[in-house]
Design goal:
The chain is an alpha/beta fold. The protein has eight helices and twelve strands. The strands form three sheets. The protein has a five-stranded parallel beta sheet with strand order 2-1-3-4-5, with helices on both faces. The radius of gyration is 20 Å and the shape is elongated.
Length: 232
């Protein structure tokens, strides 16, 4: 069975550099989406799941710094590299303050970039392996996110991918507020009205699945988010 390729978002407005870098990374078994301005990059990030972002700083419509802020709102943990001809200390500091894993000045050695990408993706793969093994005891329920299974009294409900991700986030924030905007951006990609209505439907489904334990409740904190309350 062929291993799934890591997905990389590359935002670079220099057409030649963008194509050369995209081809180089694809030759090294990465799945690369190339966009040539910040707005298109943000739309791609909202549309697809990526594991690393390479962002040029100076781009039309939305620069790399602003794009990084938008990406971090959706996924605070995704590895992010800036590629920039801006070598001023202030620009480099700003990049790291925005949560960059690396700030790479142009011109750069593609082989060195590749090694840095491999190192950070390996680190994340190792962390994700640990994270996917986490299971939750919620009152009388046992929740296994890896298998997407919610079990009580020997009865198992298999969850859809979105149900599973939403319950996992609620479980991680157990008895605390899960911000509505965070859940929408992480699972649906953006916090639009229609996505919000969709999430409300999924919350109703999860309430139905959890109704057999009266000590569990998903509480709506109006305008802010939800709390998975477990009285133990």
């Amino acid at each position: 069975m062929e291993a799934q390729k890591h997905k990389i978002l590359l935002c670079e407005d220099d057409q030649n550099l963008g194509l050369v870098l995209k081809n180089y990374l694809e030759l090294n078994d990465y799945d690369v989406t190339l966009e040539r301005d910040g707005r298109l990059g943000l739309a791609a990030f909202q549309r697809e799941k990526f594991e690393l972002c390479l962002l040029d700083v100076m781009m039309p419509n939305m620069d790399g710094f602003k794009l990084a802020e938008e990406i971090r709102d959706i996924n605070p943990d995704i590895p992010l590299f800036f590629l920039s001809a801006k070598t001023m200390k202030e620009d480099i500091i700003q990049g790291y303050k925005l949560g960059a894993d690396d700030y790479i000045t142009k011109p750069f050695d593609s082989e060195v970039l590749l090694l840095k990408i491999k190192a950070i993706l390996k680190r994340n793969d190792d962390l994700n392996k640990d994270a996917t093994n986490i299971e939750f005891d919620l009152g009388n329920y046992h929740f296994n996110p890896k298998l997407r299974e919610l079990t009580i009294a020997g009865k198992t409900q298999t969850l859809s991918p979105k149900e599973n991700e939403l319950l996992k986030m609620l479980a991680e924030y157990k008895n605390d507020l899960l911000p509505r905007e965070l859940a929408l951006k992480r699972i649906w990609g953006s916090d639009t009205y229609f996505n919000g209505r969709s999430m409300d439907v999924y919350i109703a489904k999860l309430r139905k699945y959890l109704k057999e334990d009266p000590n569990i409740e998903i509480v709506n904190i109006h305008g802010n988010g939800f709390r998975l309350v477990v009285n133990e």
